[in-house]
Amino acid sequence: MAPLVAVTRSSCKLQPAAAPLHVRGRRTNGIHRASAATCMRLARRGAVTCRADVNSDAFRSPYENPYREFLPVRSSNSRSVRQFDYLVLGSGIAGLSYALKVAEYGSVAIITKDYANEGCTQYAQGGVCAVLDKADSVDSHVEDTMVAGAFLNDRNAVEVVCREGPAQVLELVRLGADFTRNNDGSLHLTREGGHTNRRIVHAADLTGREIERALLASARAHPNVSFFEHHQATELVVDEVS
Questions:
Q1: 77-89 per-position pLDDT tens digit
Q2: Distance from the CA of 117 to the CA of which of 3, 134, 140, 229 falls in 20 to 30 A?
Q3: Which of 67-76, 100-109, 204-213 shows the lowest mean pLDDT across its residues?
Q4: Pairing mode, strands 4-11 and 23-28
């Protein structure tokens, strides 16, 4: 059995972030490691501006911080370790969906670099394709998708997505996603380019935000799911144990 250990660090947002469990964390001000309290004091004095650490290795400042000597480095003894059965990096639609599934079998840690709702999912607008109209068919959806992809698509993958799509959309509804509906209460379906039938489920033009809201609410309410916002993974360590 080879357990996974994620080594993370939390970003200074003028708010101390909780130290992770199954994840070893160290706080940073984006350039130099420092305690959150020290970072906050210097910020109040106008000496340094605390900001989220967005891939500091790729966007490291070429300038030395003149207050570096006042920013003590935490020793490894201050790191804490917590154990989880499942580790999820990212809190978008994929990460949250997976977390909710495996939470039925064990504890889950979700690590995200910003607030949990901040990510690509909430900015998606159009909608989700699924065959939910009796006049439509999965075969038609498959053909539309193959044509739109100039038949370069993996047909097996296309068939799986088109066949399982309706159940996944209804699962989102069960989790609380409030999609736009017709007067009779049925889901309102629109038609977009490449589709020969109406099969786009949407929440006005803020579909991604509504899906993220519903998944996030379900994940936060689950007793087996823990969130570590303003953290990022820096290493993934695999240890062989007997």
A1: 446 788 899 999 9
A2: 3
A3: 67-76
A4: parallel
Q: Which residue has the tokens 């689950």?
A: 222
Q: What is the mean pLDDT of residues 79-107?
A: 93
145: phi then psi, degrees, rounded to nearest 5 = -70, -40
pLDDT digits (tens, 9 = 90+) for 135-156: 999 999 999 999 999 999 999 9
Beta strands in 84-230 (DSSP E): 86-89, 108-112, 128-129, 189-190, 200-201, 225-229
For 154-163, which contacts have Cβ atoms below 8 Å and span 24 or more sequence positions? 162/131, 162/138, 163/138
Asked if residue 51 has pLDDT above 70, the reply is no
For the chain, how big is the Rg over CA atoms in Å?
22
Nearest to 97 by CA among 202, 174, 180: 174
Give the Cα separation of 215 and 175 in Å (integer).
7
Structure tokens at 130: 């699924």
DSSP codes of every residue in 51-85: ---SSTTTS--SSPPTTGGGSPPPPGGG------S
CB within 8 Å of 241: residues ≥ 6 apart: 1, 2, 3
